[in-house]
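Sample intake sheet
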Amino acid sequence: MIEWYSFALISALFSATAAITQKKVLFKEKALTFTTILALFNLIIAIPFFFLINWEQVTNSGILVLFIKSILGAISFLLVMLGIKNLELSKALPLLVLTPGLVAIFAFIFLNESLSKIEIFGVILLVIGTYILSLKPKQKFNSPIKEAIKSKGIYYIFLALILFTTTSILDKAILSNFKVPINAFMGLQHLFFAIIFLTLILFSKEKEIVKKSFKRSWRWILLVAFITMTYRYTYINSIKLAPVALALSLKRISVFLAVIIGGKLFKEHNLPRKIVATIILITGAILIING
């Protein structure tokens, strides 16, 4: 039997590869067009899962929660793609590591949950890492804050973070509490994603350029689809076998790999500083998750 950490590591490697490939495609294509074509490819790849589903194990309540989660997941994925398109990869991806910090802070403010010393230190590291990530050479102390307020890409990422917080919890609940089998999870989720993105594209101005985008980039998007399906499948297996916190901690490696490889590949600015910031962010996130 494959251990949970093997699934998490495989997911991390493929997730990093997906992020780099997505950035390459997004240089040419619009985010919604890309995500719609990707969702359709993902659904085609997911067809075998439908033949493996034991429908007696699938409840209506489980399908409903999976549908709600898929709506949130689709929106968060689109927001991340918008963030990656508008920001350098080495700046956008590390911000996604802030998820556990936001969970801890929101729980402290709204649920009166206490924060341990380790968690507080983790939050401080997240703040420091985010500041270093945003800082440019010879900038004033408050310049990163001003730039963050003006940046659309930053807003996309932070909105995605809030949704990721919810979907991470729902993933575990769907698999454990509602007992939705992994085959049903994979098949139905990608069916829902395809429906959601098709609906979005039909009511957008981008529907007129879908054919052109498909002809121009379908090979790359198909590659992204195979990579995406691999990291999603292995991640779902990892959180089914282990606590979400442990699986997420190990999956953070994907951000580090994507920042180093993607940053060099796309010749992004201030890469050494961003790598240091990413290490600080990942350390802070792990401290919070395991604190």
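Comment: Residues 96 and 161 are 6 Å apart (CA to CA). The chain has one domain: 4-289.
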